[in-house]
Amino acid sequence: MGGTLKIPLSEANMEHVSVLKNDVEKLLELKKGEIVVDATLGLGGHAMMLLKNVGKTGKLIAFEQDERNLKEAKKRIKEFAKEVKNVFYISDNFRYLKKRITEIGIEKIDAILFDLGLSSPHIDDSNRGFSFLNDGPLDMRFDERNPLTAEIVVNEWKEEDLVKIFYEYGEEKYARKIAREICSHRKAEKFTSTLQLANFIEVTVCGGIGKRWKEKIHPATRVFQALRIAVNDELKALSDALDQAAEMLNIGGRIAVISYHSLEDRIVKQFFKELQQPQVTMEESIYRNHGDPIFEPITRKPIVPTDEEIEQNRRSRSAKLRVYKKVRELPQS
Q1: Is 150 in contact with 140 (CB distance < 8 Å)?
Q2: Is the pLDDT score of 3 beyond 70?
Q3: DSSP letters for 76-137
Q4: How confident is residue 4, by pLDDT bands cut at 50, 70 and 90?
Q5: Residue 281 is inside which H or E element, if any?
Q6: Are residues 34 and 54 in contact, defined by beta-carbon separation less than 8 angstroms?
Q7: Domains of the chain
Q8: How many H-runs (helices) and E-runs (strands) does the chain carry?
């Protein structure tokens, strides 16, 4: 199924704009000389702001698993802060946060930012397979060293596994129908491209290409989200990273997380809810402080982009920023 989807191309080829940058800067309250982690470097927009705030005596540790983004970000940051020497680039997933940071001799950090969204090149480059605005291979890997691609998931995973990820990761109400039709179709013809799959889902859900959609988003949107999350193991990676970040953060340090869909936001909310009201054993309850908060929220409600920011950067429209402050150490396990 070839062709081009009738989707507005206003989001294509947009310049990279860091989401909620001013709010992140204000709420992290960075000071000169501090150690800050940008867990999702992208093209370096947030990182340059973080560097400005920690100054020449501070340190920036930047994680980026996408080699292309990392190369571009290094260029930008070098031009922005030629005299800054204390920048450590780590080409890896942030789920290895503690291991990779301790490897460079750092045990504690003062702040960390997670911006969980796709960077502009992921969407604009059709060869990466994240978007169906234009045709491309079914890839969807952030880290191209990862052997698992969306094509493998779609063509080789069992029907029940597809149902599970479409429903849980995409919150797709037609998960079973779409998975069943994919498994039936792939017996005769493998899925290899983004438009082929997107058009197939549109036919499956709506009865044909160009039929009236019941929702504002394209019928394939949630399935593509689910495939991307599955390929990159995003939700488990986030949970792993939050655990390590909470442990490594100094008392008084802050964690900022920008999420873009309810699954990520739910993980963040639940993680910090448990650390605001930590459960204790009967034995621990007799000791003072065991049930006291380990983190406290800086943002009682998530910060969302203004209308002006959304107009400037349409990709920011679903962003939610939550910031938390560490107030005591985690209990020793």
Answers
A1: yes
A2: no
A3: HHHHH-TT---EEEE-S-GGGHHHHHHHTT---EEEEEEE-SPPHHHHH-GGG-S-SSS--B
A4: very low
A5: none
A6: yes
A7: 21-120+234-326 (3.40.50.150), 127-232 (1.10.150.170)
A8: 13, 7
